[in-house]
Amino acid sequence: MMKITSLLFLIPAFGFGQLSPEINKLYDELSKSKRVESAAIGYGGSESEVYKLFAEIDKKASDQEVEYIAFNGNSVAKAYGSYAVFNRKLKTLSKLFDSYLKNNEPITIIQGCVGSSSHLADELYKMVFWEKDNIKATEVYRKHKASIKTKHELLNFIQLFGTKESKWTIQEIDSVLLKFDRIVLDNPSSSQNLVEQITESYFFIKRKHPEYHDKLAYFEKKYSSEKIKKYLKFSGK
After folding, report:
1. Which domain holds residue 182?
2. Of 68, 139, 148, 188, which sees the most CB atoms within 10 A?
3. More confident residue, 194 or 163
């Protein structure tokens, strides 16, 4: 009994030891939030205090600390941790997605003034998929940056395009998506929402993946999904 008690006593200390005191304090505050918030929320675009905590963690935390939060935090902390893992292009990204898929925790999101419900794996997939738009905006930003002469012009330009420079290339994103697709479609327990998200995303950009046909056909039959059926018809084989 003494050995078991001693082991249980050490578990919190082990978790605490993964984070520096400063990051652990910020992480504790972040973990109190019941929802994931964008940088600005509400009709007036008020600055989110929750997002500010994440931004501070992202600025000060090491890669190892970010990964620890992404894998071991509560659902809100994991969501923010996954943003940092992705933005830093850490090698554990696919492993993180696989981890989320196995226990696809629900999350509540406030994006601007719009609230929604989602899941960790779904949001990570969407973030990667739509990074291509950010890459294109980054290319425009870099092209015109040299012609901007004042800080005021620069701030106006960033505000206009909502640009945060991407570290990714289109080819790298495509490679990550293929890994994510494989992880989802190879798992017969993958949720209907996530499989439909894959098909809807590719249907939206008119990209065919006939090699996915057999596995998508399995999910279409399993979930009787019109969305998956529509993509199968579009993609062919």
Report:
1. 21-187
2. 68
3. 194
